Amino acid sequence: MTDRIFGITFLLLGSLGYICIAEDPRHFYEIVGVSAVFVAGALLTVSGFHWLAVRPIMARSIAAGLILGIAVGAAMSDIPNGVAVGLALGAVLGAAIVRIRQRAGSSSGDPRSTTGPHS
Q1: What's the average model confidence in pLDDT over 82-95?
Q2: Three-state SS across 34-46?
């Protein structure tokens, strides 16, 4: 439930960002930053749905990587590269967490230890 609240908040902030901040197509860095917020919101919103084929922890870590990438990109004065680095780190971290949980679940025999809708 918390993921959906944060996701909807990021979706609203991303939509507001398109209207107020990234309204001019000439400002590429603004469009990339606002798009990262919007995509992070979409990932967090859908990460709580049970029918989703993507693992929720993967969606959460990619969203966190995107948000972290905006901050890193702003510090480097290069938002597109920061968002790309954050996206890559979030995907790698998410894949590592999923892999660790799968190994722990297969060794213990507990089906709840693998990623599911409430993990």
Answers
A1: 87
A2: HHHHHHHHHHHHH
